[in-house]
Every structure is written in C-alpha cells, then in structure tokens.
Amino acid sequence: MRATIIHAPGDIRVEDRPEPKITAPTDAVIRTVATCVCGSDLWNYRGINPVTKPEPIGHEYVGIVEEVGDDVTHVKPGQFVIGSFIASDNTCPNCRAGYQTNCLHRDFPNGCQAEYIRIPLADGTLVATPDQPSEDLIPSLLTLSDVMGTGWYAARAAEVKPGATAVVVGDGAVGLSGVIAAKELGAERIIAMSRHESRQKLALEFGATDIVAERGEDGVARVKELTNGVGADSVLECVGTPQSMHQALQSTRPGGNVGFVGVPHDVQIDGQELFFSHVGLRGGPAPVRAYLPDLINRVFEGRIDPGKVFDLTLPLDEVAEGYKAMDERRAIKALLRP
C-alpha cells in the first residue's frame, strides 16, 4: 500500500509499505476513504518536534472496515467508521469519566495518511455512521476524528454556556471548529482572533460575531474594549504558543474559563498571576471519542458543516504539497484522498 513517511523536517514522501494486519483480537483494519494533514503534524514538519528516523505520520481518518479481530463486536466489515486520534477501550475509569484520551490502556494509531490503517482497541475507538455517508458529508465526518472534536472540547473545557461571550484564539482548523462549537453550545457573542481574510470570512460563516485582528497586548486590549473592560466568559486557546496562552488568559474575565487544546510548546504560566486572576484553566488532548456519536448526528442532520475547513484537496501522492501549503499558510487544512 502507499503510505506517508516523514524522513526529516520538510521531507515528506509517499512510499510502498506492507498492508497492516490484525495483530491483536481487539484490532480492526480500515480502508481509508479520506485522511488529512493536521496542524500538529507541522510541529514535526518544521523540526520543532525532533524527527530522528523515517516514520509513518498522520492520525485523522475515516474509512471502511475491512477486517476485525475475534474480540471486536461493535463494528463489522463493510461499515463506514470514524475513530479518535487516540485509541481507547472506552471502559476504564478514565474513559467512563469522559477522558478517553487518558485511557489506562490507550494506544496511538499513527501512519493514518495511508491507504490502509490498523486501529487498536477498535470496539472502544471506532464509531460507525448510521448509513453509508454521501460524498458531500465525508469532509465534515473526517473533521470529527480530531479537529472538530478538539474544538468541541475547547468549548466544553472553557465552559461555554448559553448567552456567554466566547473568544477563540487561533484561526486554524481547530480554532474555526471551536467557533462552531461555541455557537452550538449557545454563546451569544463569539470573538474570533484572526489576521487572515479567508479565515475571518469562514469564522463569520461559522458563527463568529466579531473579528479581532490584533495580537498580543493589542489583542487583549481590543477584547477588553469589546467587553466593556471586563473580558470574556470563555476563551478557547487553540494554538499552543506562549503568546497565544498569555493572550487567552489575559482576555478572560475573573471567574471565566480558558479551554486550551493547542499542544503547548515552551508555554509557562505564572502561578501568582493565575491565582489572583480567578481564571479557570482546563485542557489537554481532546477526548474525541466522547463526542463522536453526538457530532456524527449533527453532521448527518446538517446542523454543522465543519468540512469547510478543508480548502485544499489532494490525492495521497501529493501529500508533500499539502504539508507545504499548510506550512506556508496557503491552506487552512489539506484533505487527502488515497
């Protein structure tokens, strides 16, 4: 099969690899219908995360079940399925508490930018769609594997409530998905922080009511201006840099909450500042599996259309261009067709 391999920063190749096999009775093998490049993949592509040897890459997927292990009973061959970017048994205490990405038996499917993938803990990880989806639904369903579920978790962690004012820091696919989530959870005002016109337009289409193009202290000042000097009830931090975290914390009112889902890189938080701010802070790897059934229904019912974050579609053989386009911010998110 063809699979994407990262050899070094900036060096993405499609190579022939053996097709995956069932190696444990809880496994499933999926024929990939669509996959994509994630913003977090760019940490490796840019060399911020070390790449020491050639390795498969990619963790977002939808596809058709080809084969299952003897212990798999919740999905069967022929079904169209979506799974979280972290595999979980969905039965351990952490899973039952709604934090499947901290499953006591979690596993990390990798190499999903490929024609076939093996998913461990298939019963706890994969969710079948009600029917075979139409072609136009596939991009939105693909976002549920990570970015839409992650944006949803950011909004939940920030405790977005009906009537709230929410700020979204970050205009990538996760941030834009966070705008959708904030609107679905009832936010009355949604301030999207973005300096890119195409992303601003999509944020407005998804439900943002205000756009703030300023960053850093200027961005914080603009949010305070828009909120009568108080700050927002809920802030979704969807980047993972020191500047974005500072901006998020400073934009939150006393008693408000920050949900942070951008993987932190060199982020340090001043304990005294946090203590006296009365701002709540919760985040981490999004428990996508917890939200899949609900989000699948919202997509099938036409309530949300997060697939619009894909503004570049390429065959798998051109995956390197997808990485390059996202790295150069010529694309929000690249969808790949094996």
Automatic annotation (TrEMBL):
CDD domains: FDH_like_ADH3 (cd08287). InterPro entries: ADH-like_C, ADH-like_N, ADH_Zn_CS, ER, GroES-like_sf, NAD(P)-bd_dom_sf. Keywords: Metal-binding, Oxidoreductase, Zinc. Gene3D superfamilies: Medium-chain alcohol dehydrogenases, catalytic domain, NAD(P)-binding Rossmann-like Domain. Its cofactor is Zn(2+). Residues 7-336 form the Enoyl reductase (ER) domain. PANTHER family: DEHYDROGENASE, ZINC-CONTAINING, PUTATIVE (AFU_ORTHOLOGUE AFUA_2G02810)-RELATED, ZINC-TYPE ALCOHOL DEHYDROGENASE-LIKE. Belongs to the zinc-containing alcohol dehydrogenase family. This is Zinc-dependent alcohol dehydrogenase family protein. It comes from Streptomyces longisporus.
